[in-house]
Amino acid sequence: MTGGFLDGDVFRGLAFRILVFLTLALLPFGLIAVFQTREIARQANSNSELSLLALTDQAASAERSIFQEAFGAAEALSALTQLYASDARACSSFLSAYRRAVGLYSFISYLPPDGIVRCSSAGGSYDFSDAPGFARELENPRRQITANPSGEISAEPVLVLSQPFFTRAGFAGFITMSVPLSVFSAGMATPLDGMPAHLVTFNADGKIVRSDRTDDVTKVDLPADKSLQALVGQESVVFQSTNTIGEARIYAVVPVVPDVAYAMSIWRPDEMEESLQQSIGLSLALPVIMWLASLVVAFWSLNRLAVRHIKKLGRQMRHFAFNRRVPRTTLGQGVPRELAEIQNSFVRMADSIVRDEAALEDTLRDKNILLKEVHHRVKNNLQLISSIMNMQIRRAESDDARQVLKRLQERILSLATVHKNLYQTENLDRVDAGKLLEEIIGELLAMGLSASAGVRVTQHYASIQMDADDAAPLTLMVSEALTNALKYLGEPESGGPARLDITFEMSAENTACFRIANSTAGAQGSAGTGLGTQLISAFTRQLNGTVEVGYQQQEHWLEVRFPLRERVKGTYDF
């Protein structure tokens, strides 16, 4: 009963879209009531959040003033300390005088990249190169605030503010300002009504640097499902969560110094707000119930009258697309007239498509038969020409004439073999080049080498599919190369039988390689410039390939590399 709505992509279905429009038609006043209630709740929630953020910002105002003043002073001091870069004692005296004049800081120093402080308000030298986190600060110099509960130099708990500065040469170090925690306590404003129950300040690394409660209380009141690090980089935000012991809390976070320090206030939920949320939920329940009841009735009617019939028609179309079977059954009883007309039109169209495809298959079959017949007759004619030339060879009076006719006969037989493979293969567009070359070379070796020649022949042919248009120049090139190899074949001076090595394989991705090597007697001959060499170069250019010839250790070799054309969809014999 629910087929067609809950199956597939629900949100793009006909039933879902109609139900959406029906919702707009049946529940205008209910939607208005819902929107008004949500607007009131949103406005109340927004006002509450703004109030919490304002109170948090007010509570952190003293910290903000101290931080901004410290960073501003550090920027000014970074330029002044460069004047004393060569005199550590004068630099320390200057910082000490500044610290006493301001009275806000317990320790000021210039921390160079090597980590050894030579210029500070306390004088002397301090090594911070092995301090935790110092190496990480050098990798990413930025403003930073950290807490130092022990305060070894200041002799009291402090917050350390680090201000990086740069010169034309690059990063020059940090100006550090140590502010005692007692300064923050003295600078806090008098508590007002509505101030947060708990205020925490944390840095950009998500570490707490100051809290108005003890450490144990602070850890208990932190949000259980969100880390302080996750709040870094955000604008002012308010969210509700539970603390580490499961008590509900409201948290408000504001930036004290953007990307450096943040203040988070912690509040206890007000009972009046909970009552407001309950009343809003009750006001939303009634229109939602009425809306759901209307949708159930509309959905049942729509599925009964339209969707299930459309799904059945869709299945018939998919079955026809997969197996080309024309549907023989109707959609059933009670089908709307419009859907019945659509099915009748589909059946007529499907029957027409089946007939047209059958006619097309007959045409393709006839075409393939004719092409194979053409290749067969061309092969027969070439073999007939070869037979006539064989008669001419026997009647020739000179050896030169017989050699010329024999070379021409070999080329014709190579073409005949190509056409023979084309009409014997199922795919008329591509041939197995390895099988083709093996057959042609076998015939040429039978004609050019006697059984008693004593030549050791090594052959290897990989099965490589190539375009039929490239088969003719390939076979003619191989025929010329083999003829030249047989012409200069000889036993090496080092002893042993004459050798002939033939290889056809893939040398790289989409690149084929034909290599033929033969042993020779005596020194290397001159570079070939005859007709055979010219034909090899010409056929290689037709293949868009390259040819290399070499001689080493009484062996002459020829290597041809050419790219294979991209495979196209074949035309098969039906």
From TrEMBL:
Which EC number(s) does the record attach to this protein? 2.7.13.3
- Any idea where the Signal transduction histidine kinase subgroup 2 dimerisation and phosphoacceptor domain is? 373-445
Molecular functions per Gene Ontology: ATP binding; protein histidine kinase activity
The residue ranges crossing the membrane are: 14-35, 169-189, 280-302
Offer one Pfam family short name for this entry. HisKA_2
Record keywords: ATP-binding, Kinase, Membrane, Nucleotide-binding, Phosphoprotein, Plasmid, Transferase, Transmembrane, Transmembrane helix
Name listed for the protein in its UniProt record: histidine kinase
Q: What reaction does this catalyse?
A: ATP + protein L-histidine = ADP + protein N-phospho-L-histidine
Q: Which domain of life is it from?
A: Bacteria
Q: Which InterPro entries match?
A: HATPase_C_sf, Sig_transdc_His_kin_sub2_dim/P
- What are the top taxonomic ranks of the organism? Bacteria, Pseudomonadati, Pseudomonadota, Alphaproteobacteria, Rhodobacterales
